[in-house]
Amino acid sequence: MSFKIVEVTKKTKNYFSNLILEWDDFVYNHPLGNIFQSSYYANIFSERFLDWNLLILLRGEEIVGGMLSQVWPYAGFRYYRLSTFKSVYGPLFLETEKNPFFLLKSMFNKVMVRKPLQHVILTPSYEYIEELKNMGYHEAPNGVRGTFIIDLRKSEKEIWASLEKRCRYSIKRAQKLGIKISKTNNEFSPILYYKIHLETAKRLNMSPNPLNFYLSIWRNLTDRFADFFFAFFDNKPIAGVIIFKYRDLAYLYSSGLLEEYRSTNAMNLLIWNLMLDLKHDGFKFLDLLFHPGKNDIKSPEHGLYLFKRSFGGKEVPVYHYEKLFSPKIFKVLSTKSFNLYKIIKFL
Q: Which of 15, 119, 209, 335 is most buried by a 10 A CB count?
């Protein structure tokens, strides 16, 4: 039986509402199902400033696979040709599917029709890598190489013992300094987190996400699928973390720390406390979400790798591949000051 690809976006989500419900069931029951491939995650990007793209593969009436991509506009340009399609922990295919590579190629060709600036894939599935290479995708330089997953099924004593010595020391030090941790999911949480995020992004020389992005997380995901955690020092919020929750797995989605308080080790205590909170709530695993790899010593994020490793989780490979569809536009956008006319003439 032949198959068809149904494309769903925020403009057509109401028309395909029943199919979206079926997709969510497919994701939830899939062994590799995760929040980043669910419509709940897509809801974050349903605000007017962002977009998403869901490709669902149907054989007859049965869903056999699919992929959700975030659509990030470049420099505020809300146009596919100036956007990055990013798929996290996807695509997903029915385990009994005999020819997933053919489906993969067909689905990715559908992405090409949209002609985005680039397509980024973060997948734990090595089986797709050769096919990605054949389609012109390449491993992202200085990109993600893995993640650490903490087993929360262990006893608190066992989890504590699995932490690296320096991590345990940092937690104890933060406790002695009087750092307080709080899970805070009120309307002020996204604003509080955004202020910390701004300073963190500036320190790391990153482009900050807009406030509306964190407001969207709060509106669409808390309390069922997301929590905001904060560390306070003398009643001042100095660090924050956003946790996503799905099935029995939690994800450390985003984190930030004020520069002047780095020496307090507040982030160590913050993550330790949220680990205990998640364990108490019955979650089995915590995914610390992405690091550059132990061999990328020259990477500016190598310190992040060492920090996440210190929590004693199991290191799991993640394959970060990308394809540039508009190299001329990308080259113009990569310059420190680009001329809008130069971009338009390539569109």
A: 119
25-39 pLDDT per residue, tens: 999 999 999 999 999
Q: Please give the helix or strand (H or E) that residue 264 lies within, else none.
A: none
For residue 73, the one-letter residue type is P
Nearest to 71 by CA among 10, 27, 129, 24: 10
Of 74, 76, 56, 77, the residue nearest 65 (C-alpha):
56
Report domain extents, the chain: 3-144+320-344, 146-317
Relative to beta strand 249-257, strand 285-287 is parallel
pLDDT of 336 higher than 60:
no
Neighbours of 221 (CB within 10 A): 22
Once rounded to an integer, what is the mean pLDDT over residues 168-178? 98
The region, left, alpha or beta by phi > 0 then psi within -120 to 50, assigned to residue 289 is left
CATH fold match for the domains 3-144+320-344 and 146-317: yes
Phi-psi region of 263 (alpha: psi -120 to 50; beta: other; left: phi over 0): alpha
What the block records as the tokens of 31 is 């062994």
State the sign of the Cα–Cα–Cα–Cα dihedral 133, 110, 52, 344: positive
* Fold (CATH) for 3-144+320-344: Aminopeptidase (3.40.630)
- H helices of the chain, in order, are 17-29, 39-42, 100-114, 129-134, 156-162, 165-176, 189-203, 211-221, 266-280, 302-309, 327-333, 340-344
Closest CA to 145 of 309, 316, 305, 318: 318
CATH number of 146-317: 3.40.630.30
Give yes or no for residue 204 having a pLDDT over 90.
Answer: no
Helix axes 211-221, 189-203, angle to 10 degrees: 140
Taking Cα atoms as reference points, which of 140, 130, 80 lies closest to residue 105?
130
Give the best-scoring range by mean pLDDT among 54-68, 93-107, 274-288.
Answer: 274-288
CA distance 292 to 148: 11
